[in-house]
Amino acid sequence: MSLRITFLGATGTVTGSKYLLEAPGRRVLVDCGLFQGYKQLRLKNWAPLPVDPKSVDAVLLTHAHLDHSGYLPLLVKNGFGGPVYCTHATRDLCAILLPDSGYLQEKDADFANRHNYSKHKPALPLYTEKDAELSLKRFHGLSFDDRHEMQGGFTARFRRAGHILGASIIELTFEGTTIVFSGDLGRPNDATMVDPAPIKRADYLVVESTYGNRRHDPRDPEDALAEIINRTVGRGGTVLIPSFAVGRAQSLLFHLDRLKSSKRIPMVPVFLDSPMAIDASELLCKYVGDHKLSEDQCRTACGVAHYVREAEESKTLNMNTMPKIIISASGMATGGRVLHHLKRLAPDHRNTILFAGFQAGGTRGAAMVAGAKEVKIHGDLIPVRADIANLEMLSAHADVDEVLGWLGHFEHAPRTTFITHGEPAAADAQRQRIEQQLHWVCHVPEYKEAVDLT
Fold it and tell me: Distance between CA 295 and CA 316 in Å, rounded?
């Protein structure tokens, strides 16, 4: 029987991951993410999906980040009624992330309507918190490494990818043909997450290329963090860290706890201002064994910060001008509480806005890292006078050398390796590296491109 893959996202961008696999009478979607960043990408979230959601039989998720899972509430709202398969930790993280995404969309639409800065009358959310809650009923948590038989002849196996809690590499087999989806590959020798599982064979491979054209800064992240914090606190400023709530926030807490324990930074207060990040931190302690930390290490790291759950307490943080460290979502400054902190802290030269990983094109984070002197937040132009830094070595994505190292475990070349989840320069650079070093057949697919796998 024929098997076809169609690339419905993560082509020419690091967002919107969606890969449709079709066999006669069967459709499976691997990942179901939101497009983020540039407006022309975000508009794709509002356009009809190129495939009828009712015709999709099942969804498999590599991990919980919204660029891989955040479209699911809309898929269900528009008629998808099948199961969503993922690891247990991914299921629990999606139970935090998806309702929060719906809630924030509702709040942003309401704010836009009250302050009359949206071009749409009225502004509407892509989906609501209730839509997200309903989508969670479709989830089925599965164990790592076991083979899971699915209806229609597909067999799936979830292997550890590192990256974040629950993240997986998916091996999907249909009638003897195996397609491996790397998802987001973590970094080998990460301080908190396990190394990506070695994969020995695949007939076809879909691999990410977020850092396909660069290597991570080799500096110790704690050295870099200490330098920035000490410099900022020394001039009476606050360090604001826009952080991905799942994964990055917990890594930051681990490093900050070590820096405080070793007295390498002043004993300034640390605030974790993100209910979602707080809940994700608690899950880290639940899933001991899915990462490198012991339960005691988890609880010690999470204990370094004061948790800020209530919106009113969040608002008061900026009223106190004493030096402090605020970790708040979102990691690319695209939404959430961090925007209110940016409005207050970015105009002051004493402060530092410290990004902690990849900033997708079209996001406020990318603009600020590139040197923007002002950014638009809630319809207002906010001057940027604070120091801006980005510690990409804190990224949970493997860089190009680390991806090549992971590919080195394959005993034989896949028939075709599809390079996705990268901006154009990164994807093409990684294609060239794989072709030159490994002599594999590679292809960088276009949006909505369909390829028959034979």
Answer: 32
